Amino acid sequence: MNTIENKRFYGWIALSGAIITYMAFGGCVLYSYGVFLPAMSAELSTSRSILSAPYGLQGLICGLMGPLIGLSVAKFGPRRNIVMGNLVVGCSLISMFFITEVWHIYVLFILLGSAIGFGTFNPCTTVANNWFIKKRSLALSLVVAAVGLGGFVFPMLISWLISSIGWRLSWVAIGSTYIFLAAVMPGLLIKNKPEDVGQIPDGINADGKTTTGHDKISRIYQTPVDWNVGDALRSRAFWMILAIMGVNTFILNMLATQEVVYLQDKGFDPLLAASVWSLLIVVNSIAKLTMGVLGLRFESRHLALAALAAYGIGNLLLLNAQNTFTIYLSSIFNGTGYGGVVVLYPLLVGAYFGRKNYQRIIGCMSPFVFLIGFSSPIIAGYVFDITSSYFWAFILAIILVIIGMICAILAKPPQMLKESGSDISPS
After folding, report:
1. What is the pTM of this model?
2. Do 261 and 395 share a structural domain?
3. In which domain, by residue range, is 391 found?
4. Measured between alpha carbons, how far is 360 from 66 in angstroms, rounded to an integer?
5. What is the 3-state secondary structure (H, E, C) of 268-329?
6. Number of folded domains in the chain?
């Protein structure tokens, strides 16, 4: 354990704040709206499709604000962004109590979408990236896996609340809970970086040298320098990592919106089809933790190659779905692919480009990743409309997996250009 002045290493406490935040995000925001939807639709006499649109709108706004979020986290630190961003989100959730018209929901979710990115993925993974180097993969996996825990616990709680006190008061309860878990708790627990409390990151010796890299101590690469944003954008590794995450998001969103109806079209029972997606969510949470452990021993780009291969197998199985065993097996492979890449994405960015500008580099990737994912359901739906089949949509997904695997092979540690004035990082 690395310490300065005999202080107990604070990184795990800081990380717990990020984990609690991301768990609250999964339970109170990401997986909650669908539970409220039937009751809200009935009282407001509005179709579920119209009420579902604000949820997609907040995601659009959050994704496009990625660069601004990165700048804010870099300037003010993750702790302040998490507290302020999630206070706004929590107040937005509480304000759902007052809605009487559909447009009120749109306004609140525009506000929510403008704030949610400042309080979740970017700053939470920044906390892990700042405090951990040697155990970075484990730290990141614990953060991103927490969203699944929230998604497992809170929907059942919300359903009980709605049946007990109605959906309006349930929004108040969930919003208040979110403020406590995602603003108050991280405000108390998180320290932005070890240097703020006179400590050093896990994986750095007292003399300031990393104990990871292509050396005798570890086979896992870690950049010896912090890259600036411009140099990162000019590196091949940046675009390869972006492509890997883009493929992941494209396939995930296609499966999230089309898999259940595809299986129903194939003649499978609707309940069985829905359970296939539920299994994917469970497996993806396990895969996140598994990749975090494997990331301590193996290079992230090699693990990304394996995760994408799992995605390819999963989609091939779906394409040839014949029986219950086949479709459940496809969910295991697809869940492994999704959960693996989600952990490896921030891990690769941190390992290749360092701690200092991690937030801004991730922020620059976010709009591209989101737009790729946003296009996925539209493309898959269009393919079905013109062919009356999802065959070519799955073929496209498999082609993208192959492209992603090639990108994983090419995603070698980048070399700093000599003209940048920084040391050349080893490859």
Report:
1. 0.83
2. yes
3. 229-416
4. 8
5. CCHHHHHHHHHHHHHHHHHHHHHHHHHCCCCCHHHHHHHHHHHHHHHHHHHHCCCCHHHHHH
6. 2
